[in-house]
Amino acid sequence: MKQKIALAIHGGAGTILKSKMTAALEKAYKEALRLSLQKGYDVLTAGGTSLDAVETAVRELEDCPLYNAGKGAVFTADGRNEMDASIMSGKDLAAGAIAGVTCLKNPVTAARAVMEKSDHVMLIGSGAEAFARLHGIEMVAPDYYFTRERWEALLKIREEDPDRTDLDHGSSKSYRKKKKEEKFGTVGAVALDREGNLAAATSTGGMTNKKWGRVGDSPVIGAGTYANRLCAVSCTGWGEYFLRLCVAKTVADLMEYKGYSLLRAANEAILKKLPEIGGDGGLVAVDAQGAVALPFNTEGMYRGYVKNNGKIVVDIYA
Amino acid sequence: MKQKIALAIHGGAGTILKSKMTAALEKAYKEALRLSLQKGYDVLTAGGTSLDAVETAVRELEDCPLYNAGKGAVFTADGRNEMDASIMSGKDLAAGAIAGVTCLKNPVTAARAVMEKSDHVMLIGSGAEAFARLHGIEMVAPDYYFTRERWEALLKIREEDPDRTDLDHGSSKSYRKKKKEEKFGTVGAVALDREGNLAAATSTGGMTNKKWGRVGDSPVIGAGTYANRLCAVSCTGWGEYFLRLCVAKTVADLMEYKGYSLLRAANEAILKKLPEIGGDGGLVAVDAQGAVALPFNTEGMYRGYVKNNGKIVVDIYA
User: What is the pLDDT averaged over residues B235-242?
Assistant: First the structure.
């Protein structure tokens, strides 16, 4: 019997208004998802590991200026780009994460180096960058991340609310409204390889106009990323809510402790637990039998998957 | 009926060799635990919240030079002190965390400010410090953290292995041996208040000679700290393993999804799951009925608890 393989990816969830989308832009977004899936699928069909597949798929999205990770990272309040990423191997629970890095071309590859070349799980800031440099991770100058669209997004927020110092003076309500208007930007991938091993990876440029070294769920094992022998999960959405629920670990635990199927566990987390506390977003997940789940409670989520037959499926809206 | 209250604390777990402990030192360690418990207990008996109680208890340990948090924080490889902390409210899953901060007298109070005065959960590095400064959190100069004992611990590691650049060149095995010889330093508290609300907090100075902006489980919601309506958990030990297992959330999920008692869930996490992947450490936990659990799989864990009767129990060894 041919072993099952599967790969699922996301490029962020949120208020992706159809009315603001052009046909050309939608095509470009989908094309990038297809390319990511094709490259990850090629790894799997060649007998590569799920870790290689998710890293490859995420790198492709990090290199695409359309998605909020790597090249397309949004700007912080002080006009910089601060990125976070994580990766996890389900076979042995090995994990690596970096947060608050500013000069790495592919943050997910640095996260993998943390996992494989250190005994640590999480490195942050300039220390993480020094570690990555030592291990030959590709560095870029800050202007690598400059994209007109992201820069204008920052200027727009500044113009709309010049006094806005993010969260310290505004009410949660007004902040919530602001946030809802912005796209939640994250990319991620989950995979099952021919050996039956699962892996997950997530990468993000964070929030436009973010301050205070804010970190969301993407680099946090258990929140934005988790993988074990049962499933692999990568989340996207309003990070603070994913952190408070430990969404990725919740999916794994619902399967392990309640015997839920992947789909039921993923739906419980995203369609029930997350909205209960006011959170928005989605996730992609795959289980050890090759089932995939891609639930979201937002208007859309850039997403796609591919299984043994090689048919690439991508979509944006519900 | 009088509502139940409970408070449990820890001051780190690990290889606390009885042979290296003097009577005077043991007394001092225990006295600090007693003081922390008494101050937290006073908050609870006065009708204060579990959040106030855990913050108070942790601040007390942060101010004590004996424990590896706040004042007693260990030194990084470059001779600095980098601290992490987190706090969580079980009632509403509100949470706050800071990582990699160097100038805050009480990191746990900064974590609480993140929870209450921002819409974020996790802030890191200089951004977190700027946020804390803006909100009036007490700042200190770097020499505040200087203690002869911690400095000599750094010098000793450097002397034993001057070329040791931590994890990048050494094998895991040699690293593991090194690590086992060091005390895992973390402080934490969990509490149940008269309203029936649970809270947890954890604070740490990290590892002696740490590099690369390493972050352990202490500031990670779900790994080192978790609280919901069922339980509150604060962990201590070899952080990387707690991160990979999401130990604190695992305890909560074993209770919620498998119906385990607090004690059974805590024991399953620390005495079964953690050693299975080679991890060392312990945790303190309290449930909504006021039961406490303080399991550890190391030679000792600085720990204690107090319940309604006000009897303070502290211990170090098994």
Answer: 96
What CATH number is attached to the domain comprising A121?
3.60.20.30
Q: What is the 3-state secondary structure (H, E, C) of B207-276?
A: CCCCCCCEECCCCCECCCEEECCCEEEEEEECHHHHHHHCHHHHHHHHHHHHCCCHHHHHHHHHHHHHHH
Nearest to A123 among B127, B213, B220 (CB): B213
B301 — pLDDT class (breaks 50, 70, 90): very high
Q: Which residue has the higher pLDDT, A7 or A165?
A: A7
Cβ–Cβ pairs < 8 A, chains A and B? 165
Mean pLDDT, chain A, as a whole number?
A: 92
Q: If you measure CA to CA, which chain A residue comes closest to B175?
A: A119
Distance from CA of A94 to the nearest CA of B (A): 7
Total of domains in chain B: 1
Residue B175 to residue A135, Cβ atoms within 8 A: no
Q: Which domain holds residue B40?
A: 6-307+312-316
A residues 1..40 contacting B (CB < 8 A) = none
Q: Is residue B49 part of a domain?
A: yes
Its ipTM equals 0.94
The verdict on residue A22 lying in a domain is yes
* Closest listed residue to residue A301, CA positions, set A129, A195, A191, A186: A186
**Overall average pLDDT of the A86-97 stretch:** 98
Residue B1 lies in a domain: no
Between CA A149 and CA A256 the distance in angstroms is 43
Contact B124 A226 (CB under 8 A): no
Tens of pLDDT, residue by residue over A173-225, are 444 555 554 556 899 999 999 999 999 999 999 888 899 999 999 999 999 99
Flag whether A172 is in a domain.
Answer: yes
From chain B, the residues in CB contact with A131 under 8 A are 168, 211-213
